[in-house]
Amino acid sequence: DAELQRAACNSLGQIITDNAVNRVKAGNAGAVEAAVVAMRRHAGSVGLQHAAIGMLGGMTAGAGNAQITAKAGNAGAVEAIVAAMCTYRVDAELQRAACMTLARLNGDNADNNNRAKAGNAGAVEAVVAAMRTHREDAELQRAAC
């Protein structure tokens, strides 16, 4: 059920905010993989997409997140985020969060394979489309750059 998955992602997002220990626990419990599965299964639910992208952004925030970032990449988070961006192009809030999360997933990390995944998934085109569609949104422009 999309609404249940949305609520779960929102709850996890609150639990992991500014709490590295809880991010690790959530990562070990399979939160990243569950969010990606929910995004794929409920692609038509914009609310779920918002919640999952937000939670994935929270999971990959902060220093020392290489393991979670790799886990997200292996679970298909990059591809799921790009799919949401392509589906909900006019939703500035979703585009903004997606750009921020993609930046975190592709951060400076020698072992980061997510950059190749992003290129193959069409992330470059999706980010440029977001920048063009939402030219007046300064926060989105910052996130995209």
TrEMBL record:
<dbReference type="InterPro" id="IPR011989">
    <property type="entry name" value="ARM-like"/>
</dbReference>
<dbReference type="InterPro" id="IPR016024">
    <property type="entry name" value="ARM-type_fold"/>
</dbReference>
<keyword id="KW-0677">Repeat</keyword>
<protein>
    <submittedName>
        <fullName>Uncharacterized protein</fullName>
    </submittedName>
</protein>
